[in-house]
Amino acid sequence: MRYRLFGRTGLRVSDLFLGTMVLTDPGETRRIIDAYADAGGNVLDTASAYGDGEELLGSVLERRDRFVLATKYTLSRDARDPNAAGNHRKNLVFSLEQSLRRLRTDYIDVYWVHVWDRHTPLEETMRALDDAVRTGKILYVGISDAPAWVVSRANTLAQWRDWTPFAGLQVPYNLLQRDIERELLPMAEAFGMSVAAWAPLASGRLAGGSRRADPGSLTPRDEAAAAAVRAVADELGATAAQVALAWTRSRSPAVHPLVGVSSVEQLTENLGALDLVLPDDAVDRLEAAVGFERGFPADFIAECEPSPFVFGDHATAVVGR
């Protein structure tokens, strides 16, 4: 296992993040966490809305200081209470205290905003998060499932006002769902943010395709992607899951696959992706199997960059940083 810095901070996080959403059995949870730690993994990700997930994780977690413990807030705690959801200060304070109790800890290493709340001003959210950082109850902050312009504005506000900026972005990313390449991934790279990629196996559709999933639930596009992944896996002597995870890591050094497993065997298989380097031709074949267009403005700007009409006769002579 190798480590990278979490955003523009000094926090060391492992290449592979472990999601705990699907864990329900205390014994198996403890075995999975032990195997993950033995392999060098150190990021455990949960959320206030994952049923009894925080309680379970808090009950089995040992060597607390050795882990980067991450949880989220935003989602409703009580459907009848309008203030029991959202990114406002009241919900943040209550949710954070609840998570601390459930996780049996005095602080959260990474506190994620779970989803953008269009009704709460970004200034309120960022100031409330910064206040929690200053009290020591959380150490770093991140945001999940939000538009690029929201994250950009939030971090610009933080920069101007000396608040704690978002160091991480958590978004879905896999061979079948590459939308973040349009705006979110370039934005994260520009701000130096780490990207936790959830659903890197497309809910299992890339981890063996129709051999694991109900064939009737797979679209022709799903089938094409799964077939390409299996073909590359057979050539490289790897599993489909390992190829799919390796692909997400090949796209950007900012990306950390966030895997959810229900057994030590699944974890061991996923860890094998860390030693798998996909040849360029394999990456090309995987991407050609499903196709993807970034659309406007990314594709338009890419066409403009080498154009003398746009940037003059020396357009192709300018070397970037």
Automatic annotation (TrEMBL):
Protein name: Aryl-alcohol dehydrogenase-like predicted oxidoreductase
GO molecular function, one term: oxidoreductase activity
Keywords, in A-Z order: Oxidoreductase
SUPFAM superfamilies assigned: NAD(P)-linked oxidoreductase
InterPro entries: AKR, AKR_Detox_Biosynth, NAD(P)_OxRdtase_dom_sf, NADP_OxRdtase_dom
GO cellular component terms, A-Z: cytosol
Organism: Pseudonocardia cypriaca
NADP-dependent oxidoreductase domain sequence ranges: 16-289
